């Protein structure tokens, strides 16, 4: 299947398969060259924030995988129509530097145009993420 033929539901399925691969570039290939991306949260957590290009998306996952060890990422339901898909699920990961547990329910809202993800919003318990990031044991900046 070419990207142009991918429906929003199929884009979510491709995204989950790419996440399982753990390869930042493979994940980024699902996104348009220009993307409206936001994973809101505390500025001091290095992978959170906005992105605007496919290259930025690859960098997001490179930084995320550097700092976080995934234990569980489960999509429980996908709702899709026209250009939109919403994936609902839960995650469990650990901050590598301090072994702090991050657990959260999440919702991902994707907009898909011509088979590529053009808009991405990831909603999670950003307070829990920040607390895990700041937990004792992680080296603090000088």
List keywords for this structure.
single chain; six-stranded mixed β-sheet; 30% helix
Biggest sheet features: 6 strands, mixed
The number of distinct β-strands equals 6
* Element-level helix/strand string: HHEEHEEEEH
Report the mean per-residue pLDDT as an integer.
Answer: 94
As laid out across the biggest beta sheet, the strand order is 2-1-6-5-4-3
Q: Helix proportion of residues, in percent? A: 25-40%
- Count every helix, treating DSSP H or I runs of 4 or more residues as helices: 4
Low-confidence stretches: none
Q: What percent of residues are in strands?
A: 35-45%
Shape: globular
Q: What is the rounded Rg?
A: 15 Å
The helix-and-strand class reads: alpha+beta
Task: Report the span from N to C terminus.
Answer: 50 Å
Short description:
The chain has 142 residues and is an alpha+beta fold. The chain has four helices and six strands.
């Amino acid at each position: 299947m070419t990207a142009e033929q991918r429906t929003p539901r199929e884009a979510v399925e491709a995204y989950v398969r790419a996440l399982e691969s753990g390869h930042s570039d493979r994940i980024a290939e699902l996104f348009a060259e220009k993307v409206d991306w936001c994973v809101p949260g505390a500025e001091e957590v290095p992978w959170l924030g906005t992105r605007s290009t496919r290259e930025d998306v690859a960098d997001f996952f490179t930084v995320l995988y550097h700092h976080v060890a995934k234990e569980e990422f489960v999509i429980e339901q996908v709702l899709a129509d026209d250009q939109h898909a919403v994936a609902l699920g839960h995650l469990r990961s650990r901050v590598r530097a301090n072994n702090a547990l991050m657990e959260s329910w999440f919702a991902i809202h994707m907009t898909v145009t011509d088979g590529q993800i053009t808009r991405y919003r990831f909603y999670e318990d950003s307070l829990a993420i920040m607390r895990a990031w700041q937990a004792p044991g992680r080296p603090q900046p000088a």
